[in-house]
Amino acid sequence: MQNALETHDDTTTVYHTFFEKGHGRREVRWTLIWPLDDPAQVGFCGARTLVLTLRQFEYIAGPKKGQRSKVEAVYHASSVPIDEGHGVEYFADAVRRQWAIGGFQGSDSNGGV
Questions:
Q1: Average pLDDT for residues 93-99, to the nearest whole number?
Q2: Which H or E element spans position 31?
């Protein structure tokens, strides 16, 4: 995926910062997106967008209070193209929903997202 990052200049990179607090920690997530001209850049047929999510936790309670985690980098490839209806906030929210499902943190009354 590094090749995909190297083939685009900074004018195609869009980012979003999100802060969330809970479970005795504060989480900061940065989401960056790049359009993909060729899905082969990331090895996924049909990929149109490369999403990079960086996140870091700061512990605000408990024995780790005041400590920060290392910055975690997670890459995602999406078949959804970047357009007026699918900007960086759309992709940031999609990643957050995916993590919520994986962590069984459903937000509606049926336990889903």
A1: 83
A2: strand 25-35
pLDDT for res 13: 56
Q: CA nearest 55: which of 85, 90, 25?
A: 25
Residue 40, classed as helix, strand or coil, is helix
Which tokens sit at 2? 């590094």
Which two three-digit tokens encode residue 99? 């993590």
Q: What is the DSSP track for 32-73? A: EEEE-S-GGGTT-TT--EEEEEEEEEEE-SSTTTT-BPPPEE
55-87 tens-digit pLDDT? 888 888 889 899 999 999 999 999 999 998 998
- Written as six digits, the tokens of 110 are 């049926």
CA distances to 2, 65, 95, 112 from 75, in Å: 10, 29, 10, 24
Chain centroid, CA 111 distance in Å: 22
